[in-house]
């Protein structure tokens, strides 16, 4: 990601509706995974550390981050409560293989040129019976200035993520779209940006308080649906993968 994106993330991820809602959705999904009581958990691409406290509800958390600025901010924010190391997927992972019950790539894989190699790297880090949890942006046709700002390489569909998992010798335990309620607004915003030639993504940054609160309420409501089943479309896509 760009340095400006990391700085914006550090300032807003505690309160921004999207970050808060995603943490609540991920926590709901993890609650249904039946992880070991003292699970060892790794987040690859931890950014500025906004997910680590949430993940720590489910076990002992370690993290990897490649960007020096983000790594510094994450360590400062968490007061060195977690083992956050410098590293890069797929070729510079500072943890030994078969170390973790759960590996998370939360909106990380889309930033990496070699996504297949990175997913294979994540699989090798799993203990027997472990799982990889992925969230990624959905639908290549939704590509916009926001993807460019965040240095995305691609967006995914169920079909392309299934195919990627298969190439890496992993099976899909579960897959679902999410951020479904706000899907029409997102599509309209991206079409508007294209028609206007806007090079700065509509909706970037922290919205005014009442708007931020309303968007969070709408987005986070999806955790109740995802606790029971799947959603047929959305701005984002999640998957739980295991070794075949």
UniProtKB/TrEMBL annotation:
Organism: Cupriavidus necator (Alcaligenes eutrophus)
Highest taxon above the source species: Bacteria
GO process terms (BP): methylation
Keyword Transferase: yes
UniProt keyword annotations, A-Z: Methyltransferase, S-adenosyl-L-methionine, Transferase
Record InterPro entries: SAM-dependent_MTases_sf
GO molecular function terms attached to this record: methyltransferase activity
Protein name: Methyltransferase
One Pfam family cited in the UniProt record for this chain: Methyltransf_23
């Amino acid at each position: 990601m760009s340095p400006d994106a990391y700085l914006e993330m550090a300032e807003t991820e505690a309160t921004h509706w999207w970050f808060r809602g995603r943490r609540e959705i991920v926590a709901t999904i993890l609650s249904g995974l039946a992880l070991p009581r003292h699970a060892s958990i790794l987040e690859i691409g931890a950014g500025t550390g906004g997910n680590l406290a949430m993940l720590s509800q489910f076990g002992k958390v370690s993290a990897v981050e490649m960007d020096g600025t983000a790594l510094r901010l994450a360590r400062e924010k968490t007061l060195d409560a977690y083992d956050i190391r410098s590293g890069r997927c797929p070729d510079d992972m500072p943890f030994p293989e078969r170390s973790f019950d759960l590996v998370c790539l939360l909106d990380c894989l889309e930033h990496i040129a070699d996504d297949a190699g990175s997913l294979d790297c994540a699989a090798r880090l799993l203990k027997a019976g472990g799982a990889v949890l992925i969230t990624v942006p959905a639908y290549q046709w939704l590509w916009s200035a926001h993807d460019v700002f965040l240095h995305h390489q691609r967006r995914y569909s169920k079909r392309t993520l299934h195919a990627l998992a298969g190439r890496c010798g992993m099976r899909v335990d579960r897959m679902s779209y999410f951020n479904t309620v706000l899907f029409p607004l997102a599509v309209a915003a991206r079409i508007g940006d294209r028609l206007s030639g806007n090079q700065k993504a509509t909706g970037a940054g922290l919205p005014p308080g009442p708007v931020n609160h309303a968007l969070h309420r709408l987005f986070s409501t999806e955790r109740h649906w995802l606790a029971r089943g799947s959603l047929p479309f959305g701005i984002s896509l999640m998957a739980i993968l295991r070794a075949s």
